[in-house]
Amino acid sequence: MARPRIKDVARHAGVSEKTVSNVINDYVHVSERTRRVVREAIEDLGYRVNLAGRHLRKGRTGIIALVVPELDVPYFAELARHVIREAEQLSLTVLIHQSGADREHELAALAGFGSDFVDGIILSPLALTADDLRQRAGVPPTVLLGELLEEGADHVAIDNEQAARQATEHLIGLGRRNILAVGGHEAPGLGTAEARTRGYLAALAEAGLAHHPDALLPVGDFRMPDGARAVTRALDAGLRPDGLLCLNDQLALGALRALHEHGLRVPEDVAVIGFDDVEGGRFSVPTLSTVAPDKAAVARVAVQLLHHRIEEAAQTPRPDGSGEPGVQSPQDRVVAHRLVLRESTEGPTPVRTGAVRPHTASPRSRP
Q1: What string of DSSP letters covers 2-30?
Q2: Is the whole-model pTM more than 0.85?
Q3: Sequence-distant (≥ 6) Cβ neighbours of residue 164 within 8 angstroms
Q4: Over 80: is that where the pLDDT of 62 sits?
């Protein structure tokens, strides 16, 4: 059976094709009766809007790209699900690309993969530099996730420094005094690891606790084996932590295994807290306390901001009158996070397990 077309809907409803188009595009100058008749005809015939044709008429593809370092990292997999859901609300299709945290791959994404295949990019960069962003032409529109490389690009993230500080303060509030940072990276820079390390160090300093360089446990990657290896090395070297701040949940889950293999109890001997609130942490033994970014809000703000930029680029002329899209002021959007307390810090007490303490975005940049 042939797919129904606008003219079929018009004939079924007894109206013109233009009227059907007006209803589909939600134009206001259509009576409620006519709108109802057309919608009933659309339902009766099973008519579906040709989104590809609609986008092409606007000079677009209707496709955006989500570029993440690794697809099998649970945080990015969960984020991708939210991005796809938000994009569907705007009739956009999401192309998911894995960069491998490789600078050349991230540069290719930043340039739109060298074609007009995508209308915009949501990019979580790990290898790009501030110079890379300064040299880009601004096309296609791009929204960055994670820590801000510089002012000059749209950006969505949680306040990682503040979140790490709050998580460390919670461990200190439990009486822990020898807290190690798994994945900690004390170096100049604006990356996520650096921001979380700064928050950890600030909490120690505020509490008057000495910081020893050995308290930062560097990792080659942010996966479970890396967390297990880092904690094993520390324990084998004679370090005796009573708390671990892990810079993501994958590291924390690996740390739990290393502590178990060394006969240490969690949280009785060592309290452990992670970042990202991935599903695995809700089923580990013990369940994992974590900093939970509002992933749904990150996706919603990023997709809506990118959609706005795509629309803006199509309509805004350059100041020189060339008719090309102009560059508008970038936005830095901070999304809420919360501290989710489970058994790895609180123990199996039913009253405390699963407690949630919210921490919201600053008033200047709420989504």
Answers
A1: PPP-HHHHHHHHTS-HHHHHHHHTT-SSS
A2: no
A3: 195, 196, 197, 198, 199, 200, 203, 245, 247, 275, 291
A4: yes
